Amino acid sequence: MTGPVSPRILAAVDLLAPRPRERLLEIGCGTGQAIQAVIARQPTAAVVAIDRSDTAVARARIVNAAAITAGRVSIARGDIEHGPVAPGGFDRVFAVRVNSFWTRPGLALRHVARSLRPGGEIWIIYDEPAARIVETIRSSLQAFGMPDGRTEERPGALAIVAGRRGQAVINFRFGRLV
After folding, report:
1. CA–CA gap between residue 7 and residue 131 (Å, rounded)
2. What gap in Å lies between CA 99 and CA 137, rounded to an integer?
3. How many CB atoms lie within 10 A of CB 154?
4. pLDDT above 90 as % of the chain
5. d(CA 161, CA 138)
6. Which region, left, alpha or beta, applies to residue 79 given φ > 0 means left and ψ of -120 to 50 means alpha?
7. Nearest C-alpha neighbor of 119 from the set 98, 144, 92
8. How far is Cα 59 from Cα 3, in angstroms, rounded to an integer?
9. Mean pLDDT, rounded, for 39-53
């Protein structure tokens, strides 16, 4: 690892629990700390990451240079609201504190749903979710044809889980990360 990873990001990656040989897409990678933590935790995972900021992308590439050279990581400037994101290739898509999923969910969810392979998941992770965020995302999931959503709670975590029959499974996780 290059430099310390924040406890908030480490907690988010622990919640995500990357799996062996999993293909992940991170939306809003910032300076690349979550990528760094994913690869450290699960070296056989592959991560494609996007961020709107040229500065963040440049820093994320420096932080994850060894994983990029090894072919485990790819980082590009991109915007989930406008695409493009490769369709159907990711086991899971994740984002840590990316507000587009509740401020403009229709724009973000459209591209995310297309980026998942059948049975894939999306994990939207927040450290302190507000009730309005949960309700907005729940309504958006219903509007996207996922009416069977449910909420699961545990100490420090709230998950909104919904799926599209015969399509990708969408799993939103919210956790109070300490």
Report:
1. 23
2. 11
3. 8
4. 33
5. 9
6. beta
7. 92
8. 12
9. 95
Q: Which residues pair with 173 in a beta bridge?
A: 159
Tokens 């990873």 sit on residue: 5
Highest mean pLDDT among 52-61, 73-82, 109-118, 146-155: 52-61
> DSSP secondary structure string, 48-116?
EEEES-HHHHHHHHHHTHHHHHTTSEEEEE-BTTTB---TT-EEEEEEES-THHHHSHHHHHHHHHHHE
Evaluate whether 158 touches 151 at the Cβ level (below 8 Å): yes
**pLDDT(157) > 60:** no
CA separation for the pair 160, 172 (Å, rounded): 5
Q: Name the residue with tokens 């995310």.
A: 112
Residue with tokens 């300076």: 31
Give SS3 for 1: coil
| Cα 51 from Cα 26, distance rounded (Å) | 9
Computed over every residue of the chain, the mean pLDDT equals 78
99 Cβ partners below 8 Å, 6+ apart?
A: none
**CA 93 to chain centroid:** 4
Rounded-to-integer distance, Cα 46 and Cα 42, Å: 9
Output the pLDDT for position 162: 55
Contact yes or no for 101/124 (Cβ under 8 A) = yes
